[in-house]
Design goal:
This is VWFA domain-containing protein. The chain is of the alpha/beta class and 205 residues long. The chain has a single domain (12-193), classed as Rossmann fold, CATH 3.40.50. It has nine helices and five strands. The protein has helices spanning 12-30, 52-57, 68-83, 107-117, 134-146, 156-167, 175-184, 189-192, 200-204; strands at 35-38, 45-48, 88-94, 123-129, 150-153. The strands form two sheets. It has a three-stranded parallel β-sheet with strand order 3-4-5, with helices on both faces. Strands 1-2 form a two-stranded antiparallel sheet. Strand 4, helix 5 and strand 5 (150-153) form a beta-alpha-beta unit. Helix 3 (68-83) runs parallel beside helix 4 (107-117).
Length: 205
């Protein structure tokens, strides 16, 4: 999270802070109760309705391991208890392989939560890639292709390069397009597929 984004003076943490602020600004238009923010290695979650509060939360730098399975399980269980069948959109920013609280890799457990503990019909998950680590990117891209209501997005520069490698150098992809991809890619299948490689049949046809 503290590495610089290619070609910029911003860290991944800075990029994430900007994105969370944007989500709060847009999300509170539709839900005045605010947005719930969960940090993997903080005991408390935070309900934010004022974008300015994001700056305060992000003054504390990232630390610790990556207990995605435990945190996501807690979020899902809480949602079932209080919201029943209401649709849920979750953004997960990660820079590493999922671990338990002691730092031991536990990708199979996290996959189980995603596939069997998540209500796939009404729980949409957007993964934000905050690393260049090929192993992390590999499993997320596979989940994007295999799991329902799941999308994966990188930082703007990487995403722009990927989109134009697939659709051509002149394909329009602005920062506004990127924001739309991040916000609704896990909800809208057409936007989700915008960075997918074409099927072999499409290439041959």
């Amino acid at each position: 999270m503290t590495n610089f984004v290619d070609g910029t003076t911003r860290t991944r943490w800075d990029e994430l802070r900007m994105f969370v602020r944007l989500v709060v600004e847009i999300g509170t238009i539709f839900d005045s109760n605010g947005i719930n923010i969960h940090f993997l290695n903080r005991q408390n979650s935070y309900r934010i309705s004022n974008p300015k509060d994001v700056e305060r939360l992000f003054k504390i730098p990232p630390r610790g391991y990556t207990p995605l399975a435990r945190v996501l399980r807690n979020i899902l269980q809480s949602h079932v208890q209080h919201q029943q069948n209401k649709k849920l959109l979750i953004f997960i920013a990660t820079d590493g392989i999922p671990t338990d609280d002691d730092g031991n890799p536990n990708l199979p457990e996290f996959k189980h939560v995603m596939e069997h503990e998540r209500q796939v019909d009404n729980t949409h998950v957007m993964f934000l890639i905050c690393t260049d680590d090929s192993e992390t990117v590999s499993y997320l891209r596979q989940w994007d292709a295999e799991m329902v209501n799941v999308d994966v997005t990188d930082d703007y520069q990487t995403q722009e390069k990927m989109i134009r490698e697939i659709h051509g150098a002149n394909y329009p992809f602005s920062y506004a397009d990127y924001v739309v991809k991040v916000l609704v890619g896990a909800i809208d299948p057409d936007i989700d597929r915008s960075d997918d490689l074409p099927d072999e049949d499409d290439i041959l046809s």
